[in-house]
């Protein structure tokens, strides 16, 4: 039982990160019907920049508490990834907005490769370790059971919930959110109504990249390392989460991310005993993609994907 | 209706996307290499002296690129020293040239790289780094008659294939797995052991040998879990291991995974010690695991660094040249390169067919100790040393084996008594 609860906790932590990244995919898809495959690399850059900024902060002002250093590093990293997200849209996608759908998709892959190579040039090929700013980070016992959770893991879940709630409120309640929803439903008409579509699209990329930077920083803190290659797999998983929840739907991305984290964690933990040792835990990664295939076959619009049907 | 149509579009896009991403992993890394052979083909006869090419292959990209670069540096140091000293073979001055290629730690790419070496007519190959890449590449070198010395491939299958061109200067995993299994039971008093491996030729091979040895000593294997050599999240498998309450967790794999794994064990409150092979007995492991590295064990074939006859000198030269620390195998690539050239000198020829017999019977005293090959190409007398992290540094715990250590599987039974003797000395 304790093992099971621990797997749920593991799944929630992983799922929160997937959800934050999935939001970036789904926001862009909702507005442009474009799968921004470079988003995984934006997350990676976010992680690498955060590590660099944290090292910078700790060298300038040593002795600050860990949470403060982390916040400072994050606040420096977010604007950088925002600029990156803005530039990607401006340089790679905007000129292709009228092109056939396949063109921007291929461009996205090109951007992704470019970013990976640039990261390798800047930070080198070896993994970067996350500075030990949180000290010991000893595990807490949950509910007096033998279930452990660390401060970083708690931070991940709480921060993810806050950011996701903030984003949902922004999209539903603010003027910017209304403009985004309008653009997503019909860009031409929204444009006629006085919405500046280009600004809205840029804003979407900027917001998605900011969330990606936070996810990247949390990823690096949680696994205490990051390298130039992490963007690919985590991006693919988050994309799967977005499709699972119904791509284009914000609440769906959150739901999909958390569901995927739980499926993976519980799946990897129990696949051995369940299949009597026939399949081992090295099949952890197939769950994400098995889920993707099942969703595409049985419910192509995803769990919460009404919007997709509405649009088509 | 609209739904169905939409799903078609979506799946088409996804399929395309999947293809695209596949390319993503392969394409960028191939491009720089593709340009290389053409550039390398040119300087065949620089200034009247004969140019002899020696190939070196290791992953120079990906998450163990630091180890690959370390290997390359070892070989480069040897080549530069030889060129500075000036070597004459067959009455002609010889200039050595290092052709270093990136095999990405990937078996498929390794065979492409091997073919590229054959096409470039290298006189010999130092490499590859991983067992998974060394084994398939060995066939290509054997077909072309090019001698291959791996500095770090420890999987027994490499020399079991029966190729006359395959050599290694490091003790294999039968010796290492055995030493670790004995160590876990005898020294750590482990009764219940959990094993994880990364499903590579190296990790799986080492874990299997360890399991055999530990079982032979009467320990119980309570869990056998698996991961892969790209993974960073081990919470799920570690949680199920925690439920089995092992005394020792063994990991067959590399430092890029072992570091985060040690950290995650701590997060989950697993008190068991992490034990593993040469794949994570590196500085990188300590960096990645942080304070969770403290007290963990890993072995390394060969003598402890401070007991290697030429290590201090080598370390100084290495640091002066590359301005970085040695990771793991650089002394082995250095020795492999040096002894390959030594064989050429003895045969008085750089022709691989002529010097190969000399290589097979060479007796060479290198940085890592004396090197001599048995009939399979394994190094004779490979020692295994177990280390523990103490105060953020790897400290020697025990040296197992020594002159009589088995390079083949057969005399394995004879070892435990002798191994114990060695350990007591420590």
From TrEMBL, chain A:
Its main location: membrane. Keywords: Amino-acid transport, Cell inner membrane, Cell membrane, Membrane, Transmembrane, Transmembrane helix, Transport. InterPro entries: ABC_transp_permease (IPR001851), BCAA_transport_permease (IPR052157). The chain crosses the membrane at residues 12-35, 42-61, 67-93, 105-124, 152-171, 200-222, 228-247, 254-274, 286-305. It is found in: Cell membrane. It is a multi-pass membrane protein. Belongs to the binding-protein-dependent transport system permease family. LivHM subfamily. This is Branched-chain amino acid ABC transporter permease. It comes from Parachitinimonas caeni.
From TrEMBL, chain B:
CDD domains: PBP1_ABC_LIVBP-like. Residues 1-17 form the signal peptide. Residues 24-46, 407-426 are annotated as: Disordered. Pfam families: Peripla_BP_6. Residues 415-426 have a biased composition (Basic and acidic residues). InterPro entries: Leu-bd (IPR028081), Leu_Ile_Val-bd (IPR000709), Peripla_BP_I (IPR028082). Residues 52-393 form the Leucine-binding protein domain. PROSITE patterns: PROKAR_LIPOPROTEIN (PS51257). Keywords: Amino-acid transport, Signal, Transport. SUPFAM superfamilies: Periplasmic binding protein-like I. Residues 34-46 have a biased composition (Low complexity). Belongs to the leucine-binding protein family. This is Branched-chain amino acid ABC transporter substrate-binding protein. It comes from Parachitinimonas caeni.
């Amino acid at each position: 039982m304790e093992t099971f609860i621990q797997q749920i906790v593991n799944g929630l932590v992983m799922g929160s990160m997937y959800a934050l990244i999935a939001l970036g995919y789904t926001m862009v898809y909702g507005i442009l019907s474009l799968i921004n495959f470079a988003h995984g690399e934006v997350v990676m850059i976010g992680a690498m920049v955060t590590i660099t900024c944290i090292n910078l902060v700790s060298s300038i002002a040593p002795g600050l508490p860990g949470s403060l250093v982390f916040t400072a590093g994050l606040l420096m990293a977010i604007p950088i990834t925002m600029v990156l997200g803005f530039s990607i849209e401006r340089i790679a996608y905007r000129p292709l907005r009228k092109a056939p759908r396949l063109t921007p998709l291929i461009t996205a892959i090109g951007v992704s490769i470019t970013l990976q190579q640039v990261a390798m040039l800047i930070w080198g090929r070896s993994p970067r370790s996350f500075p030990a700013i949180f000290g010991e980070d000893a595990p807490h016992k949950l509910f007096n059971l033998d279930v452990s959770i660390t401060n970083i893991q708690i931070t991940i879940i709480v921060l993810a919930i806050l950011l996701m709630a903030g984003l949902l409120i922004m999209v539903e309640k603010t003027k910017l959110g209304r403009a985004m929803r309008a653009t997503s439903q019909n860009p031409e008409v929204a444009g006629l109504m006085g919405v500046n579509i280009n600004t809205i699209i840029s804003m979407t990329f900027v917001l998605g990249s900011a969330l990606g930077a936070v996810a990247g920083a949390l990823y690096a803190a949680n696994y205490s390392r990051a390298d130039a290659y992490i963007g690919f797999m985590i991006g693919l998983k988050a994309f799967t989460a977005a499709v699972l929840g119904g791509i284009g739907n914000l609440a769906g991305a959150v739901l999909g991310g958390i569901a995927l984290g739980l499926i993976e964690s519980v799946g990897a933990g129990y696949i051995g005993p369940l299949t009597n040792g026939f399949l081992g835990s090295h099949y952890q990664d197939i769950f994400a993609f098995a889920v993707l295939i099942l969703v595409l076959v049985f419910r192509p619009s995803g769990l919460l994907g009404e919007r997709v049907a509405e649009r088509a | 209706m609209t739904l169905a149509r939409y799903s078609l579009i979506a799946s088409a896009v996804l399929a395309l996307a999947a293809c695209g991403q596949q390319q993503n992993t392969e394409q960028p890394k191939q491009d720089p290499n593709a340009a290389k052979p053409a550039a390398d083909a040119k300087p065949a006869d620089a200034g009247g002296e004969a140019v002899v090419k020696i190939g070196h292959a290791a992953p120079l990209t990906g998450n163990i690129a630091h180890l690959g670069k370390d290997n390359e540096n070892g070989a480069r140091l040897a080549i530069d020293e030889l060129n500075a000293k000036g070597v004459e073979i067959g009455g002609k001055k010889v200039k050595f040239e290092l052709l270093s290629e990136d095999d990405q730690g990937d078996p498929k790419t390794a065979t492409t790289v091997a073919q590229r070496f054959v096409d470039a007519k290298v006189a010999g190959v130092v490499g590859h780094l991983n067992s998974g890449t060394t084994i398939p590449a060995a066939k290509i070198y054997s077909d072309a008659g090019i001698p291959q010395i791996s500095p770090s491939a420890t999987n027994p299958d490499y020399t079991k294939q029966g190729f006359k061109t395959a050599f290694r200067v490091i003790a294999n995993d039968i010796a290492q797995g055995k030493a670790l299994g004995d160590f876990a039971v005898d020294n750590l008093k482990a009764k219940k052991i959990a094993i994880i491996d990364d499903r590579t030729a190296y990790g799986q091979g080492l874990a299997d040998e360890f399991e055999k040895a530990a079982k032979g000593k009467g320990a119980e294997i309570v869990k056998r879990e698996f991961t892969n050599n790209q993974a960073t999240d081990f919470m799920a498998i570690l949680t199920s291991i925690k439920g089995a309450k092992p005394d020792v967790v063994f990991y067959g794999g590399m430092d890029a995974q072992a570091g985060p794994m040690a950290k995650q064990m701590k997060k989950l409150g697993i008190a068991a010690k992490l034990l593993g092979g040469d794949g994570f007995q590196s500085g990188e492991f300590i960096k990645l695991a942080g304070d969770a590295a403290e007290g963990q064990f890993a072995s390394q074939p060969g003598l402890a660094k401070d007991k290697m006859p030429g290590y201090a000198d080598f370390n100084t030269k290495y640091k002066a040249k590359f301005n970085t620390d040695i990771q793991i195998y650089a002394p082995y690539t250095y020795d492999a390169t040096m002894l390959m050239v030594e064989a050429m000198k003895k045969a008085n020829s750089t022709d691989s067919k002529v010097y190969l017999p000399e290589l097979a019977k060479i007796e060479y005293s290198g940085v890592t100790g004396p090197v001599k090959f048995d009939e399979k190409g394994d190094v004779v007398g490979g020692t295994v040393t177990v280390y523990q992290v103490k105060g953020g540094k790897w400290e020697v715990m025990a040296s197992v084996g020594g002159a009589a250590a088995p390079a083949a599987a057969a005399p394995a039974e004879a070892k435990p008594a002798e191994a114990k003797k060695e350990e007591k000395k420590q």
